[in-house]
Amino acid sequence: MDTMRERFVSTTSQLLDEDARLALVLAEISKDGFSAARRRHPDRVINVGIREQLLIGAGGGIALTGLRPIMHTFASFLVERPFEQVKLDFGHQGTGGVLVSAGASYDWPAGGFTHMAPGDVALLDTLDGWSVQVPGHPDEAEALLRQSAARDDRVYIRLSLQTNARAHASDGKPGFRTLREGRGGVVIAVGPMLDHVLAATEGLDVTVLYATTVRPFDSAALRAAAGVQNAADVVIVEPYLAGTSTAAASEALTDVPHRVLGLGVSRRELRRYGRMDEHLTAHGLDPRGLRARMARFLPGTPR
User: Fold this and answer.
1) What PANTHER family does this protein map onto (predicted)?
2) What's domain 4-158's superfamily in CATH?
């Protein structure tokens, strides 16, 4: 199976052939994969080099001409480093574009903390009007990319080397999917966290919702899942900063007695960079770690 990033390259190359409104802006990352596309469309495939502020600024300028820019690099260099340009060149200017990241929270530990971005979604939450999509499989990434390329708004697509064994939302439709139903609580699994959540909740009387689009937050789906209970216990498992979506969940359940537990990447920096799976375990996001923390939170859950 190809990776999400490989699928991004092949799908975007095809989209550039099909839609003259699209433009791609790179900052060195993935440039080799787009060599053929750049030869075919030298005016719409631009590599600005290792200049991430320019990456976003160029994308914003392209958007002002009426084109639809797709901007790509590692998440830490796409959202964190050029955040002022994201805020001004798209939000303030009222333009649209698609940010597509690689690297996720700790996909390349050998790159060190500079290449980790667990806070990217939380940072975008400070801005208005951004749709945030977190696919859990290459098929889902392709569907979300195709839909986002055809839109006019501001979209962030967060790709990762972590992936679920199969796609559960390859139609790209927004909204949470109900994969299991139960009465002992609601667990929301975001993107590549799904397989770990399914393993961790095996045998538990809980509802499992699957999310690939997290902004806008699907309040209606959460309310519907919590509606079978007099009070709601909600666990959100996200592949980025723990607690990023707890406020959104609490707002959705304002008039319902509820508790929310946000599980994800901790704020603590792991300085022994190791491997991706070791980071997953260290943050308690493997099935065993998730089960242990759910057992402490959800009433009646066996350890």
Assistant:
1) HYPOTHETICAL TRANSKETOLASE FAMILY PROTEIN, PYRUVATE DEHYDROGENASE E1 COMPONENT
2) Thiamin diphosphate (ThDP)-binding fold, Pyr/PP domains (3.40.50.970)
